[in-house]
Amino acid sequence: MSWKESCRTRLREHLDPHGDLAPPWERFPDYERHTLGWRMGAGEDWVGLWSVFLEQLAQDPESRIAYLRRHPPAPISWADAVHDVLYPAEGGDEDDSDEDDPTAVVQRRSALLEQGLIASDVAFSTWLAQQKEMCWPWEMYPTPEDAARYNTRELWFWSRQVAELRKGSGWTPPGVPESWRACAQALETGDAGLIEPQRGLLSLARLLCAGHVKAPWQLGLSVADFADSFEDDMGYVDAFRLWGMSAFDDVHQLRHYLDATRMPPGWEAWVAEQLPVE
User: Fold this and answer.
1) Over the chain, what HEC string results?
2) For a Cys staple, 144 with which of 82, 127, 205, 243, CB 3.0–4.6 Å?
3) pLDDT in tens, 91-145
């Protein structure tokens, strides 16, 4: 049995009461648009199921827009996929000259925004709505460095959830295991304390526990501190790059952060190269 035949066989067990299969951005909101997770494991399997589901979905735009409206809006980074859902015939046209036309891309994205089918910074709210109970990162990762490195996007969502809970009265987080002790104060008070730029992953984890990620320029770092490293001993600028790649789904969201942190002009080229979003 081929993989696609397997997807057809298993599709029914994943359908919701409407007979829908949740689109990928709803099923895995903690996966950014171009993560490797869509090409392996559960993410790849869901994309295969979704492809089969879309083949069976009525082709007219009305049926397809109704399907999309039954589910959360997609992040702006998924605009091309949403357009293909609405207009499947265009997606199969190899001679589509608009595909790489920047003007056409912007027009399509604007139309989808107006329809409410895509939205800025929407993955967090989709993720939050799926949380049935409060989870703690040390339940899955033995150290804060591991969580920051291997679960960056979900740790960021959890950070935002915690930041909101901390605003309420009676915030009392549970005790942390010894291996997470460096994050205890940040989690309890929202104060990450003194940041050690040479310990990038730990610093990122502490800031996430505090509920806010400081930009390198806020810590007095420069572009020269960037080593272009993804190793465990990466410094803070590299860890910030890792977080930024996971955190920002669209240029509006990124620009809001850059404005809020008052990015100096000397960082503009670095951000454009390392955090390319549309």
Assistant:
1) CCHHHHHHHHHHHHCCCCCCCCCHHHHCCCCCCCCHHHHCHHHHHHHHHHHHHHHHCCCCHHHHHHHHHCCCCEEHHHHHHHHHHHCHHHHCCCCCCCCCCHHHHHHHHHHHHHHCCEECCCHHHHHHHCCCCCCCHHHCCCCHHHHHHHCHHHHHHHHHHHHHHHHCCCCCCCCCCHHHHHHHHHHHHCCCCCCCCCCHHHHHHHHHHHCCCCCHHHHCCCHHHCCCCCCCCCCHHHHHHHHHHHHCCCHHHHHHHHHHCCCCHHHHHHHHHHCCCC
2) 205
3) 655 555 556 688 999 999 999 999 999 999 999 999 999 999 999 999 999 999 9
